[in-house]
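dumping this here before i forget
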Amino acid sequence: MRRLFIIRHGNTFASSAQACRIGSRTDLPLVESGHAQGQRLGAWFAAQDFAITRLLTSPLLRARQTAQAIADANGHAPDGTGDWLGEIDHGPDEGRPEAQVLARIGAQAIADWDERGIAPADWIVDAEARIAAWHACFAEGGEGVDLFVTSNGAARFALLAAGLPLGSLKLRTGAFGELALDANGRVTLVRWDVRP
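structure:
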């Protein structure tokens, strides 16, 4: 059996700061609480009864810093980055506070994104390519434990590619989901949006 852990990077905004919708064009580092989330993820994975086979990350700094925290706790260095794990582009909503984004696109557009992976108008997502990349990942077969550190915008496509939509496709910062692949390539959702 192969296990895939899809991990969202840690916080990029302090709790006292106004959070904005950031994507591929905004390469923010983790803030203090984000580093703490990375350390908790690292400790959780280190406490599990398995060895990491592969640790891939998005090219963005926030994902690489989270992956490094996991690597530091587990002794498995990151195996590189994958563009297919990169964050989406929020178009005209990049860097804008959530209230402004909601006012521009409406609550239904946000719900469609969070529940069905349908991108709002003017966001640059390429859902077909993202789903195809996850299909290729699933088709690799084999056994072991793969960790993919990515963003909320990218992570949801793992569920969509596997045909496993939930009520919400979102992952909170510092949270992970787990998929299991059997010998026949069937994908099963083990858990989603778990914070250690």
